[in-house]
Amino acid sequence: MSLVMLPILIAFTAAIACFLTRRTGLDRFISVIASAAHTVVSIQLLIAVAGGQIVVTQLGDWPAPFGITMVADGLSAAMTLITGITGLAVSIYSLSDLGRRTCFSGFHALFHLLLAGVTGAFLTGDLFNLYVWFEVMLIASFGLLVLNKRPGTLRGAMPYVALNLLSTIFFLTAVGMLYGLTGSLNMAHLRVTLDTMEPSLTLSWISVLLLLAFGIKSAVFPLFFWLPAAYHTPAFSVSAVFAGLLTKVGVYALIRVFTLILPLDPLLADIVLWCAIGTMVIGVLGAAAQTDVRQILSFHIVSQIGYMVLGLALGTRLALVGAIFYLIHHIIVKANLFLIAGAIHRIAGHTELKAIGGLYHARPVLAVLFLIPAFSLAGFPPLSGFWAKYILIQASLDLQNWIAAGAALVVGLLTIYSMTKIWGEAFWKPHPDGPGGLDHRPIPTPYILAIGGLALLTVCIGLFPAPFFAFAEQAAADLIDPTRYIQAVLGGGA
Amino acid sequence: MEALLSGLIGLLFAAALYQMLSGHFLRFLLGLVMISNAATLSVFVAGRLTLGQSPLIPKGADAPLVEVANALPQALVLTAIVIGLGLFAFTLFLAIRAFRRLGHLNANSALPGLRPRKETHS
Fold first, then answer.
1. Considering the domain B2-53+68-110 in this protein, what is its CATH number?
2. B17: contact with A, CB 8 A cutoff
């Protein structure tokens, strides 16, 4: 069996196994083991890709462009590995976070179905197949979202479900139009076919539809409202995996489609650029107005998405390196911050900043573990976020795009404001109910393992950015010039 | 035939968007059904229509002898319909649960931050 299919197969098998064992309590351990296996396989895939190879499998031995192709280039392999790592951290964390009831309702089964959908979306080389993976991901995320039975969940779930369904329908329509125009669905073949065509109004409309579809998915301004409405409601494990992975699949799809299939024309690139700047600014301002830890973090997802989309809009090689670096850094950091929000909730009894406090004195270890991703998010050297922001700002300065560079810097500063707000309110000030308001039982080991592991990764990327940078550069080079990708998929003759 | 269906797709899209913007979740669902049908139809029409020729290859031949209907969009549409049905069933379930919980399905007061007028416990 090919290496490309293994992560997806592992996740699917795990989903079935977890569903069958959900009443025995075994499912949580299967979940951890499967996530670990997913990570190991992804590392192998990454090693193969880092050696300069693009790993391709033609499903059912149908040659491209007729069959469905699964492809792992630099970007796909890196995203698959990050999915595995996030999955591993969350499944370890969920050992202590979730009650038996939530497991009964099939959390682990849905969780692995979600991982399968996300991994499939990263690895597919076929546009219609991407739509199918989106739907797999979507149905799993719907299930996870409503596992929690509080009324707030429903109020958040409705806009989430509505807008995400709309986005996939836009995507499907665009796929149909593209097929009608070219007669192909294979991404590499689409590029080859479209290269022979004159730019037309139809193609622009298809671009706009795809932009709209992935824009909703990745929560780009002005299409992001569903995200802050939904992400603070489900269980902490769920919101961590959502925050880490879901919107990033949208960003991945944006980068993939608008570099490989339909490179952005100048007008659309301008629109995307302004949307990206709007996303950064509005997201961070929204976060400044919130007082709940998870709501602050949700708005910060929106803000950070802006940086990645900015990388795509600028379109230079360095900007794409920045976007890829940012994706990798952001998933780790953001999932970790949501896991920490869960730990805060467990110890202080709430995530509303007014109702908590005193965590620094009670839990110095957690405080340090919070500071690492928080500072990284804000872009403090030498953490991973610093390098990600540095590359992107450098790329905007190279293009003399002062507005983008200025916005990136100011948004970084405002991010510090939000992080200090959480720090000051949750950790520094005394708990409003006195020390009695805190849970004095020790923090569960799975919490420390998951949070500490992700924090360690953040520090590692920050201290040794060179290999990550080199890898991102190779991946970005393949995005700018997809010849290697196309040759790997279609064979030398194309 | 293609032109006729394209017109129908446009009509469906327009009607669906009108329904979806009305602010009531049930109407939104109606719009959703219509718009997903419009999307599947557009995939179907994109494959061009050939009337009355099923895509069958006669015994002993490698390729169909006459011009036959394009089978790929049919497969795609089938996939999309199945997925769409599943997602719609879920959304309907969500709407029913929301109605029981909130007592109404008005999207404007279902938005976060605004408290529902009455909460009944189920």
1. 1.10.287.3510
2. no
